[in-house]
Amino acid sequence: MTKGEQIERLPKKAYEAELFRLQGELVKLQEWVKVEGARVVVVFEGRDAAGKGSTIKRVTEYLNPRIARIAALPAPTERERGQWYFQRYVSQFPTSGEFVTFDRSWYNRAGVEPVMGFCTPEQHEKFLDETPHFERMISNEGIHFFKFWLNIGRETQLERFHDRRWSPLKNWKFSPIDIAGINKWDDYTKARDLMVERTHKEFAPWIIGPVL
Predict the structure, then answer these.
(1) Where are the domains of the chain?
(2) What is the model's pTM?
């Protein structure tokens, strides 16, 4: 898919049928993870309102929460800020027979943090340098590791922000970071492109979702 290319949406019935089929495959995967004692880590990243939460909901909807766990970490505590950057994420990694999905991950330091000034340029560069080594360790450990980036267009993002802002069921999702980031679209694009360039590796490739 070329940059900026839009995909043709599936008709609703075709989408629901394909979703049902894929969710069935995930249930089979869950049983395999349990029987084989496998460990799976899945990372979902993307701009605000890209659909990470709803995608994760579809992925885990019919899975056993004892096997398939979601890690959605809040802002780091003062203690965590003094630790190795990856430490609080590693503490969420799966044990034998477990499937962990990260709703945002250590890649905060590749996007939100440098764009919003929450880390220094030196910290950002160190992250980009160290992350491939960290993820090679994950691969070498035998953990099945997947990274998904969900694309979203600027117009769609604004529409979803508007929906969040005025919906009594979704306004908890609308944050000051969303407001501050609206005018930083190009900065986020540069940060994303640099992130993919530096961290897309054969042992830990990025899987880029469709442009919405």
Answers:
(1) 12-208
(2) 0.89
CATH, domain range 12-208 = 3.40.50.300
Which tens digits make up the pLDDT trace of 139-185? 999 999 999 999 999 999 889 888 887 888 777 777 777 777 788 99
What is the distance of C-alpha 79 from the center of its chain?
A: 24
